[in-house]
Amino acid sequence: MTHAIKIPVRVFPVAYLDPNTGKRADDTIVLTKAELNAAQIVGQSSKELINRLYNRRGALVVDIGKAAKVEIEVELSDKSGCVQIEGSAMLSGGAGVRV
Predict the structure, then answer these.
(1) How far is CA 15 from the centre of its chain?
(2) pLDDT at position 84
């Protein structure tokens, strides 16, 4: 018998200006649906939340792409402490992400 939970997440491609180099860099950020719902309760969009998270690091967000829907499965009976992530997503611009 397996004991697992599935966590729906959104994977956003983000382009930002690196505060250390001043150059544009590409990144991805993974947010749970719970995090996005909490932001919505206080009147923040997903883009506003991402901007706030990057601003904390001193980075200036240049562009936020379309979110890919992914589901993370965590096996609770696994004694190794490892998390198994299954699924795949296609990000805007044709970049594929395998998780």
Answers:
(1) 13
(2) 55
pLDDT digit string (tens) for 37-59?
A: 999 999 999 999 999 999 999 99
Facing residues of 60 across strands? 17
Q: What does the mean pLDDT of the chain come to?
A: 82
Q: List all residues 6 or more positions away from 4 whose beta carbon is below 8 Å from its beta carbon.
A: 73, 74, 75, 76, 77
CB-CB contact of 31 with 46 (8 Å):
yes
Residues present in the chain in total: 99
What are the angstrom distances between the C-alpha of 5 and each of 28, 31, 52, 67, 73? 23, 16, 29, 22, 6
Contact 5, 49 (CB under 8 A): no
Q: Which single residue is written with the structure tokens 């499965």?
A: 73
